Amino acid sequence: MNITPDLYNNCNYLQQRDGKRLIQRIVDDFPDKHFNTIVDLGCGTGNITNELATKLSHQSIIGVDISEPMIKFAAENYRRPTVQYLAADICDEWPKFKDKLQLAEHSVDLIVSIYCLHWVSDLDETIKNIIKLLKPGGYCYILLFSWSDLLPIQQKMAIMDKWQQYFFAIPKNWNRIAKKSRETIRKLSEHLAPFPVFEAPDEQQLLAKWRDLCRDNGLHEPETVLTHTYYQFANHQQFNNVLQAMCHFLPYIPDDQTADFMAEYLQLVNDDYISKQLLNGKLVQTTNETPVRLNYDHMIVVTHIPV
Ligand SMILES: C[S@@+](CC[C@H](N)C(=O)[O-])C[C@H]1O[C@@H](n2cnc3c(N)ncnc32)[C@H](O)[C@@H]1O
Q1: Within 10 A of 151 (CB to CB), how many other CB atoms are there?
Q2: At CB < 8 A and 24+ separation, what contacts does 20-27 make?
Q3: pLDDT number for residue 175
Q4: From the alpha carbon of 8, which atom of ligand 1 is closest?
Q5: I need a surface site. Which of 64, 81, 174, 188 has the fewest CB within 10 A?
Q6: In angstroms, rounded to a whole number, what is the distance separating the alpha carbons of residues 71 and 221?
Q7: Is domain 5-147+201-231+297-304 annotated with CATH 3.30.70.360?
Q8: Is the CB of 46 within 6 Å of ligand 1?
Q9: Is the pTM of this model over 0.85?
Q10: Gap from CA of 141 to ligand 1 centroid (Å)
Q11: Is the Cβ atom of 119 under 6 angstroms away from ligand 1?
Q12: Is residue 51 within 6 Å of ligand 1 at its C-beta?
């Protein structure tokens, strides 16, 4: 994932809106609770960790992210006496992960993870770490993307002659491969590809996957909710900034070609999406000032360790 902290921090409108909603849900679920220790997995630049600190009564919050620049940014910009930011990979095996976090086994009351877990390469290991961290009765609230209108456009880029060589996990004839084989390739390439989803996953399968992940690892049967939703960006410029801040393809492209890749990507998004916006039920010819509505699906998974 390619993210420049200050660019991301100025553009995560959607993540902030949804993250704040999830935090409000936690406030509503535990109106009077004081949390001793809260961990934010994949805290990014810390602006949502800061929201957690503002909204939830707590003794200590640890924001964890694999990216050193993110952690540095968070520590510089969202410093608070009760909040610590630490760099760690949440897919690391428990002994290594524990050492980085300097937390005892079963010492955390609440784990929150906002728009991170669709990125991780080893969800089983992540869930194991969540279980090791949580106290009996400890809760875990996860928010993650399950689909976005941008994915088919990104896939189109990834199978273009010019760019396909950098996305080895996506076969060139992807659209002509039988659905069952696509599913197999998708599973095999989950840990290799820039994004583990190339086409809308079957919703029931996705929900079942998360239920199984929680259940098989000893977590309580989770609440899983998949929501079709959208975010309306103010205008083309704002949307283009978001695309640039969050283009997870860039680390796969050689440095001397990233500007070229980005220009083509923005053009494709413009041609295939922005210029054909359906606003208030009507297909409108957009101008630079027209808002851009991004349709996407997200999932909320809420679970806990049985007491
Ligand atoms: C889209 S950002 C979300 C950041 C923040 N939660 C927010 O909502 O603004 C995803 C974050 O997950 C982090 N991340 C991805 N894989 C990770 C891993 N294996 N361990 C820890 N953090 C990870 C990335 O570095 C990135 O900062």
Answers
A1: 16
A2: 20/48, 20/51, 22/112, 22/114, 22/141, 22/143, 22/300, 23/48, 23/51, 23/52, 23/55, 23/56, 23/112, 24/55, 25/141, 25/300, 26/55, 26/56, 26/110, 26/112, 26/139, 26/141, 27/55, 27/56
A3: 61
A4: 9
A5: 81
A6: 32
A7: no
A8: no
A9: yes
A10: 15
A11: yes
A12: no
Residue in the block written with tokens 């696509």: 182
Q: Is 197 in the pocket of ligand 1 (CB under 6 A)?
A: no
Is residue 193 very low, low, confident or very high in pLDDT (cuts 50, 70, 90)? very low
| Sequence ranges of the domains in the chain | 5-147+201-231+297-304, 150-187+235-290
Cβ(142) – ligand 1 distance below 6 Å: no
When pLDDT is averaged across residues 73-87 and rounded to a whole number, the result is 97
The 8-class DSSP code of residue 222 comes to -
| pLDDT tens digit sequence for 256-297 | 999 999 999 999 999 999 988 877 788 888 888 889 999 999
What are the pLDDT digits (tens) for 100-153?
Answer: 999 999 999 999 999 999 888 788 899 999 999 999 999 999 999 988 898 888
